[in-house]
Design goal:
The protein is of the alpha+beta class and 154 residues long. It has four helices and six strands; from the N terminus they run H-H-E-E-H-E-E-E-E-H.
């Protein structure tokens, strides 16, 4: 396996693991989780563009996550699928994937593109450097979604 393929595989494993963490962290009946693993997975200069277009730095993302612990119903689920390495180089990968969430009887999907850098001290040897999320669905679905609260839906 080439270094680039290995980096892409590590990035996908990181996506799956962090979304499993989000599901457990956010659910009202979630189990014990180690928030430090989440913090260590995000680069110091991590930046996210939420589905509503708001840019957020690492500090804001971590603060929102900490405050949201246990605030989602016990039916909350996250599934990540369709990984595709858009670009790779030695030590970096741009990975695209679909995230599907189910909460309170409703589903939503977003296309995510994330830049990962190799970091041997990160929990799974890659760290999140940048994340861009975009709502998926038809125009009609977008119009019936209602107002989107900033950062809604981790």
């Amino acid at each position: 396996m080439s270094a680039e393929s290995l980096t892409a595989e590590l990035a996908w494993q990181e996506v799956v693991a962090l979304h499993e963490f989000f599901e457990a962290w956010l659910r009202a009946d979630g189990g014990a989780t180690d928030f430090a693993v989440c913090e260590r997975a995000l680069a110091p200069d991590f930046r996210m563009v939420a589905p509503d277009g708001e840019g957020q730095n690492r500090e804001k993302v971590i603060g929102r996550l900490r405050r949201a612990r246990g605030t989602f119903s016990s039916d909350f689920r996250i599934t990540v699928l369709d990984p595709s390495a858009i670009w790779t180089s030695d030590g970096a990968v741009l990975l695209e994937y679909t995230e599907q969430q189910y909460r309170d009887g409703r589903s939503n999907r977003r296309r995510s593109t994330a830049l990962f850098l190799v970091n041997p001290s990160a929990p799974r040897r890659v760290e999140w450097r940048h994340l861009q999320e975009t709502w998926m669905g038809t125009a009609e679905e977008a119009n019936t979604r209602g107002p989107v609260r900033t950062g809604e839906g981790f």
